[in-house]
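SAMPLE LOG
Freezer: B-3
Tube label: C17
Construct: single chain, 317 aa
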Amino acid sequence: MEFLSPARLWLLLLVPLVVVVYVVLQRRRAQYAVRFTNIALLDRVAPRRPQWRRHVPVVLGLLGAMACIVAFAQPKDEVKVPRERATIVVTVDVSLSMMATDVDPNRLEAAKKSAKNFVNQLPAKFNVAVVSFAGTASIVVPPTTDRATVLRSIDGLELAESTASGEGIFTSLQALTQVPPDPDHPDEPAPGRIVLLSDGKRTVGRPVQDAAAEAKKKGVPVYTITFGTDSGFIEMDGIRQRVPPDRSEMRTAAEISGGQAYTAESAGELEDVYKDIGSSVGFDKVDKEVTSRYAGIAMLLTLAAAGASVAFASRFP
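STRUCTURE (predicted):
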């Protein structure tokens, strides 16, 4: 166990001091009784009772004081916090072809806007992860319910070279493994969906078909949104290069995985992505202050000390 204010635990040293004072007072009281009391008469008038009873209230009171001091030191402990496992992975293509301006203001900015609109429509309990890909893919934000962090990460996406669409899907599947396990079914994957926003033209990495097949195997449909028109182009070193979208590849990824393909114009229909995702609860272990636990123990011990004092007709020294 750890404490937020461990220095306060030094107050526990007062407990043995109180014990010493109590023992000294008890001995003095016993000596006084022996010196000034007619023992034979006392035995006839008030027969002896078990001596341990009069110490019970004091012991309980000291234990209550110790619990109070522990609570005062602000203990913290790992506790299990329930968390919804259902997760949507927003996977965004940041390859250079996404800077084509055939979609206003350009493909990437349009994809960002579409992604943010989609995230804002999701149920609050769902986790959202963000993955970006160009020549390689990376998890920008692991699964979280913090929408502000997700939206900021989408705004911060920047262009890079090449397009590894297949790697984007594989990395999205990896992001889903970061969701807390179901305690009743620890080997069962979290229910998830992947939303892939891209112009669809893979240039490097593993094939999209392989990634989609793996998603299908894991029960994770991929919903694709294709950006761009056949007249789209970018300029590289003063040379104009055509970058038409590969709608066929995006459609194939969706069909193989069990998802659905959209264009940027029809992306408003994306409610289909999450309406049947289902619910599954897991647990995260987090540090939490547990002062109330020890305050409650202290209260119970104090009440027990008071009850014992009344029951045994005793009192504190």
